[in-house]
Design goal:
The protein contains 14 helices and two strands. It is an all-alpha fold. The chain has a single domain, classed as ABC transporter involved in vitamin B12 uptake, BtuC, CATH 1.10.3470.10. Strands 1-2 form a two-stranded antiparallel ribbon.
């Protein structure tokens, strides 16, 4: 395995994501130039106008950083789920985590709570599903992929039905609930980013450190056990850690589909099947993908916005179909 080339590829993806993030800072209803960015970040901000400073620091930069965290976190989670569940269709939302988070969010709208209350109830809903699916999916002390997937689908269906029932009682908050269910980053704020981004980076680093174990686990649980991997501990730890990350991300962004499903497959087609490159690459490719989607979402009908979840689905669905046809030669 040509491990010596991995840092170069990851560094290239890092710079590519940085460039896309800078381009995203320039696009919007208020014109911003490269010179403005230079004055703000490298020139001490002395020559930047107050309007540009407010737009960048209070609106666009938190949104860009949140897109990086959400896109990267969902992509890394999807790549890891596909390994531990041995299923190429596994992704952060198939286990019902998003439905649990959405249930908590819609409940907060029904109760008339603010954004912080929505985040708290959304995260609590996600954690409740994480625990429930974890308990239902265990067999002989180890997570059973098929049982876990079916449990996630059934739990998700139950919470989705509960959400539909609650939306019938929503009045003024119905539009907010619909936008949240479709995914959006418009409510990004520095306080949320200050928590979400470091947690996402730390969890992604932990999963990357264990990437060689995931390579062994991909050979099958029995083979991995014979090769010295504690498969129950690895699966349980990975599921809990990754799912909590997904719950945090969904609590601030809503349901943004196709990122965790599509990006890992793109990375495998480009870089191969080695998780030592797939997991970190998924972070940067997912970040870049969501940055592009969010920039389109707030630019297509500016000054109004399209839910970013609609953009990721609109772009991701045909790409995923193309990848399937190319992979199976039809």
């Amino acid at each position: 395995m040509k491990i010596r080339f991995y840092p170069v590829k990851i560094l290239f993806l890092f710079f590519l994501t940085t460039i896309i993030g800078c381009m995203s800072l320039l696009i919007g209803s208020v014109p911003v130039t490269f010179k403005d960015l230079y004055n703000l970040f490298l020139g001490g901000g002395q020559n930047a106008s107050e309007l540009v400073r407010q737009v960048i620091y209070e609106v666009r930069l938190p949104r860009v950083l949140l897109a990086i965290a959400v896109g990267g976190g969902l992509s890394v989670s999807g790549s890891v789920y596909q390994v531990i569940l041995i299923n190429p269709l596994a992704e952060p939302y198939i286990l019902g985590i998003s439905s649990g988070a959405a249930f908590g969010a819609v409940l907060s709208f029904l109760l008339g709570m603010g954004f912080l209350g929505t985040q708290v109830l959304s995260f609590c809903g996600a954690v409740s599903v994480i625990v429930l699916v974890f308990l239902l999916g265990k067999r002989f002390g180890e997570l059973e992929p098929n049982v876990m997937l079916l449990s996630g689908v059934m739990v998700g269906a139950f919470f989705s039905a509960s959400i539909l029932m609650m939306t019938t009682f929503l009045k003024d908050s119905l539009r907010n609930a619909v936008f949240w269910l479709m995914g959006q980053l418009s409510l990004a704020d520095p306080n949320s980013v200050a928590v979400i981004l470091p947690v996402t980076v730390i969890v992604s680093l932990i999963l990357s450190v264990n990437s060689q174990k995931f390579n062994v686990l991909a050979l099958g649980s029995e083979t991995a056990s014979h090769l010295g991997i504690n498969t129950p501990l690895l699966k349980n730890f990975t599921y809990i850690l990754t799912s909590i990350l997904v719950g945090m991300l969904v609590s601030v962004s809503g349901i943004i589909g196709f990122v965790g499903l599509l990006v890992p497959h793109i990375c495998r087609m480009i870089f191969g099947a080695d998780n030592r490159i797939i997991i970190p690459a998924s972070f940067f490719v997912g970040s870049a993908y969501l940055l592009i989607a969010d920039t389109l979402a707030r630019s297509i009908i500016a000054p109004a916005e399209v839910p970013v979840g609609a953009i990721t689905a609109f772009i991701g669905a045909p790409i995923f179909v193309y990848l399937l046809r190319k992979r199976f030669g039809r």
